[in-house]
Specification:
The complex is a heterodimer. Chain A is mostly helical. Chain A is built from six helices and one strand. Chain A has a domain at about 100-135. Helices cover about 55% and strands about 0% of the residues of chain A. Chain B contains seven helices and nine strands; from the N terminus they run αβββαβαβαβαββαβα. Chain B has helices at about 1-20, 85-95, 105-110, 135-140, 150-160, 190-200, 215-220; strands at about 30-35, 40-45, 80, 100-105, 120, 145, 170-175, 180-185, 210. In chain B, β1 and β2 form a beta hairpin. The chains are: A mainly alpha, B alpha/beta. The interface between A and B is large, with 44 and 53 residues.
Chain lengths: ~140, ~230
């Protein structure tokens, strides 16, 4: 039929291409629409964390750059100083929490590390100690 | 002297009231701390209980396509998570460097504000050619190593289980790949689902991928802290 009436084929194709939603979006179209939607984007001002004491970036602590270390091990039997240095080097997050603990809790954690140096369990104990310090169960 | 004692007494009475938050994250958590761009950021909720959401995320409708509602399961084996699971992730894998929180949106969205602790890796990166320098750089950041000239015999042994090859493909070694949480604008956003599908196509193990479907929409509606990249 199309061989005899090529115009029908052409009209059919034109209708198909113009039908909204039927034609897959090309990558460029999608990116263009994303950018267009983002152009007038604004977030709720209250959530921006600019108010004093509330999710505040201004009072945020700039951490010392800690080099990444693939040897993510905490050797057993380290001195207190070496223990803290190793924790800082290998587990920056846990070390950040560790620094927020009271001196007594830090001492207790160091003592617990000497008995059980497993890094994962130590990190769990640090988190637990921080929660306890903040009065959480 | 008496004045000092009264001042100390007054401050000690006041202190618990200042510290306790009425709008907590969960019964157990007041806030979560994450490292963002080298700073420790406290993630909290807006404390004003009369506050109503304003801004772009108060909008209910956008043209679909492309802004269509996403399914709960983005791909088999990829876990979909909510805010509480995201807080857990932030306190564990993210802080200890075994995980990465990815804002998979294009930079035009990212620069307007993001979830603290996120890095911006647009979804488009994961559809680049496997030898593209940008993809190689990103994969390295995810803890994925590029494999070069792996012999057919080695691959055969890996595929048959005689060599450890569970998390390896012809091109990539995912055995030390980080756990990723990917997110975008929310339930109506296809950017992070595209990123996840791109990663899966590259061979990323699904059990190391998580989809925070609520994204920025849910984050904003709960009044959680956002940061604007510098």
């Amino acid at each position: 039929m199309f061989k005899q009436h090529p115009a029908i084929l052409a009209i059919g194709m034109a209708l198909l291409l113009s039908a909204p939603g039927l034609v897959a979006q090309t990558g460029d179209d999608y990116l263009r629409q994303l950018d267009s939607e983002a152009s007038d984007l604004n977030l709720d001002a209250e959530t921006r964390g600019r108010k004093e004491g509330e999710g505040d970036m201004r009072s945020a602590v700039r951490l010392t750059e800690v080099p990444a270390d693939d040897a993510s091990e905490l050797a057993p039997g380290l001195s207190r100083e070496a223990f803290e240095a190793s924790l800082k080097r290998n587990y920056m997050g846990s070390y950040t929490f560790f620094l927020r603990l009271s001196p007594e809790r830090r001492d207790a954690l160091y003592a617990s590390y000497l008995k059980d140096p497993d890094p994962q369990r130590l990190r769990d104990r640090i988190l637990k100690a921080l929660k306890q310090q903040r009065g959480k169960p | 002297m008496i004045r000092t004692v009264f001042a100390i007494l007054w401050l000690s009475l006041l202190a618990p009231a200042v510290q306790a938050l009425e709008v907590r994250l969960t019964p157990e958590r007041e806030y979560v701390e994450v490292i963002h761009d080298g700073r420790l950021v406290k993630i909290m909720r807006i404390q004003d209980q009369d506050h109503k959401l304003e801004g772009s995320f108060a909008k209910t409708s956008r043209k679909c396509p492309p802004f269509c509602i996403q399914p709960m399961e983005v791909a088999p084996g990829v876990k979909t998570i909510g805010q509480v699971e995201l807080f857990d992730f932030m306190e564990q894998e993210l802080l200890d460097g075994t995980g990465l929180l990815i804002d998979a949106r294009t930079p035009s969205w990212w620069k307007r504000g993001t979830i603290p602790g996120s890095v911006n890796i647009p979804f488009t990166v994961f559809s680049l050619d496997k030898d593209d320098p940008k993809l190689l750089e990103v994969m390295d950041r995810l803890g994925v190593r590029k494999r070069n000239n792996v012999g057919g015999f080695t691959r055969l042994l890996e595929k048959t289980g005689l060599l450890d090859g569970d998390e390896k493909t012809d091109d990539w070694d995912f055995s030390r790949a980080k756990t990723l949480v990917l997110w975008c604008n929310g339930m109506w956003c296809g950017q992070s689902p595209r990123a996840i599908r791109g990663l899966l196509k590259l061979g990323y193990p699904p059990h190391k991928l998580r989809y925070y479907r609520g994204g920025m929409q849910a984050w904003q509606s709960l009044g959680l802290t956002v940061v604007e990249p510098e």
